[in-house]
């Protein structure tokens, strides 16, 4: 079957915001998965 991953809205980033996503991940202010959306 398919694997389903739930990602909080505040952890979804547009690909254009990859730098911001990286900063958030480095700050360890998130938990679980983060997602870059092309």
- Note the gap between the termini: 25 Å
Radius of gyration, in angstroms, nearest whole number: 11 Å
Structural category = alpha+beta
Counted by DSSP, the helix tally is 1
Shape: globular
Mean pLDDT reading:
90
Main pleated sheet? 2 strands, parallel
Number of strands: 2
Beta-strand share of residues: 15-25%
Helical fraction equals 10-25%
How are the strands of the largest sheet arranged? 1-2
Structural domain tally: 1
Give the low-pLDDT segments: none
| Secondary-structure element pattern, one letter each | EHE
Protein name: Quinone oxidoreductase
Organism: Serratia marcescens
What does it look like?
The chain is an alpha+beta fold and 38 residues long. It has one domain (1-38). Helices cover 24% and strands 16% of the residues. The protein is built from 1 helix and 2 strands, in the order E-H-E. It has one helix at 18-26; strands spanning 12-14, 35-37. Strands 1-2 form a two-stranded parallel ribbon. Helix 1 links the parallel strand 1 (12-14) and strand 2 (35-37). The mean pLDDT is 90.
Topology record:
Layout: E1 12-14, H1 18-26, E2 35-37
Parallel strand pairs: 1-2
Can you describe this structure in just a few lines?
The protein is built from 1 helix and 2 strands; from the N terminus they run E-H-E. The protein has about 40 residues and is an alpha+beta fold.
List the defining traits of the structure above.
single chain; 38 residues; two-stranded parallel ribbon; Quinone oxidoreductase
């Amino acid at each position: 079957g398919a694997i389903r991953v739930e990602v909080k809205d505040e952890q979804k980033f547009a690909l254009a915001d990859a730098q911001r996503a990286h900063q958030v991940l480095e700050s360890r202010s998130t938990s679980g998965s983060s997602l870059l959306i092309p």
